[in-house]
Design a protein that fits this description.
528 residues; single chain; alpha+beta
């Protein structure tokens, strides 16, 4: 082990647990980015923050929405919802949860610096009825399933704590802003943030006053969580095999057969609700990272089709992903909610046709582009980008690959400092509308199109997505969503690659529950 890696391990293990406590020590390749629950919508970051903060609603093992901070709710009118908060819920500093905290949190998540405003803004206007009752006016009739999914995106903070620490607005993560709330936290969740040491360790401890204890929601026996980012695959897996850590969220695919054969280890896996795809800058008149001057090749449909045809998706599945991917032609994260007619790839792998299309578009000799890729976020992300760069080269498109940690990658994307990049979208919500509005819609303010980093503009598509948001008839809404995704597909606004099949690796004495949103729920973990 290199001295730097050994130092990381030594520092992390100096964070000792109380006597007799069960400690879950786990790792993946990237770090926990921020403790501000409204600042960065990213999978690992959300996973850690969900141990600290809660929402009005929660998720069960099948990802169904269940009561959490709200004991119940009802729709009282076409645009009005009423939520009844649990009695006796307190924040980690002992302050009681009130309706004022809920109203504040929804309004905070709707602010410009929030990375969750695309979900929080459609919630509408929240107001306090009394200390334990919140009413929300959606402003327009909204499908109940979508409204509740939006509500489920907002983690609840304590207003007084935010006022005291100057955290009334979400941290602006994309600008590199640091705030008190990015380093410290005060939630109502089952675990408290004890220590956040960037790139070293994050430590959480069981909250003894958590309301769920009395209701039997604490089904596991984990008293303390120590999360350590370990970028090196070899170092991370050595720590697991030696017993220094208990669980790895992202074991290297090449190690899975060896782990499965080891009686001291267990591999669990399943498809994730996440689609991996390529994004092309279709907004600039001249690409930022390219040798093409005076025009943007990605604005030409023939170029986008050519790049699609240049990708050998089956080769990526076999050689890069080692079978742990499900190639798709759809932009819908959940295979359960996908439209079957959109699942086959739009174009076959055809480099000869790709070269002809590039020539027809005016690039007989190809061109050069920059491609950004995270190297510690998605399964084999850098290797995927390396493989695609090689495939593009065979049709004349030279790629300068920039593979960087997710802490640098996401601000770069959020600031549109890109020409082409790899991206992933998914999570617990399975409704296809949760991709249309944030990722497919043009950038229109209020969160719409916040994650459309290709910045293409299609007024007809936007109007269709807006109509989906208002349509209450399930059959009509489904037909409209199909039409929207079909248009995205035919215009090649993005290049979908595959859905991930996520493996977890754990010690044999550790028992976890694998969910399609790739969330490790510590409440359900039991350590023998």
């Amino acid at each position: 082990m290199r001295p730097a890696a050994a130092l990381v391990l030594a520092i992390a293990f100096s964070l000792s647990a109380p006597a007799g406590a069960k400690t879950l020590r786990w790792s993946s390749q990237g770090d926990y980015l921020t403790a501000d629950p409204h600042a960065q919508n990213e999978g690992l970051n959300n996973l850690v923050n969900d141990e600290i903060f809660e929402r009005l609603t929660g998720r069960d093992r099948q990802l169904r929405i269940v009561p959490a901070l709200a004991a119940s709710w009802e729709q009282t009118a076409p645009t009005l919802w009423r939520f009844h908060l649990r009695k006796g819920v307190v924040f980690h500093d002992g302050a009681p949860l009130t309706a004022g905290d809920v109203v504040f949190s929804i309004e905070r998540a709707q602010l410009p610096s929030s990375n969750f405003k695309v979900f929080a803004s459609p919630i509408g206007k929240a107001r306090r009825i009394d200390d334990l009752t919140v009413e929300i006016d959606t402003g327009k009739p909204t499908p109940a399933a979508i409204f509740l999914e939006n509500v489920n995106s907002v983690r609840i903070m304590n207003r007084a704590w935010c006022e005291k620490h100057g955290a009334m607005k979400p941290q602006d993560y994309k600008t590199g802003e640091e705030t008190y709330a990015s380093r410290a936290a005060n939630g109502t969740g089952p675990y408290m943030l004890v220590k956040r040491d960037a790139e070293v360790a994050t430590v959480l401890r069981k909250f003894p006053r958590w309301w769920g204890l009395a209701e039997g929601r604490f089904e596991g026996n984990v008293d303390e969580i120590v999360y350590r980012p370990i970028k090196s695959d070899a170092t991370r897996m050595a720590a697991l095999l030696s017993g220094e850590i208990d669980f790895v969220l992202d074991p290297p695919l090449q190690d899975l057969p060896r782990l499965a054969a080891n009686p001291q280890m267990r591999v669990v896996e399943g498809p994730e609700n996440r689609v991996i795809f390529l994004v092309m800058d279709q907004e600039r008149d001249e690409l930022k990272y390219s040798n093409v001057k005076g025009r943007n090749p990605f604005k030409d449909l023939r170029v986008r089709e050519a790049l699609y045809m240049a990708i050998d998706i089956e080769g990526i599945r076999r050689q890069v992903m080692r079978g742990k991917s499900m190639p798709t032609g759809s932009m819908i994260p959940s295979p359960v909610a996908a439209f079957p007619e959109l699942e086959p790839r739009l174009f076959p792998f055809d480099p000869d046709r790709a070269r002809k299309l590039l020539a027809e578009a005016g690039y007989p000799d190809g061109f050069e582009i920059g491609m950004d890729c995270p190297n510690n976020r998605y399964l084999n992300d850098e290797r995927i980008c390396t493989a695609i760069a090689g495939m593009f080269a065979k049709v004349g498109v030279a790629v300068k690959l920039n593979a960087i940690p997710r802490a640098q990658f996401f601000p770069k994307v959020d600031n549109f400092d890109i020409t082409m990049h790899l991206y992933g979208w998914g999570g617990a919500a399975t409704d296809p509308g949760f991709t249309l509005t944030p990722v497919i819609h043009g950038r229109a303010g209020g969160g719409k199109g916040d994650f459309n980093s290709g910045r293409y503009k299609d007024e007809a598509l936007d109007a269709l997505i807006d109509a989906v948001e208002r349509e209450l008839d399930p059959a009509k809404r489904s037909a409209m969503m199909l039409e929207a995704f079909r248009r995205v597909r035919e215009q090649v606004y993005t290049i979908p690659l595959h859905r991930q099949v996520i493996p977890w690796a754990e010690r044999a004495n550790v028992h976890t529950v694998h969910r399609p949103d790739n969330v490790l729920e510590a409440l359900w973990v039991r350590i023998d």
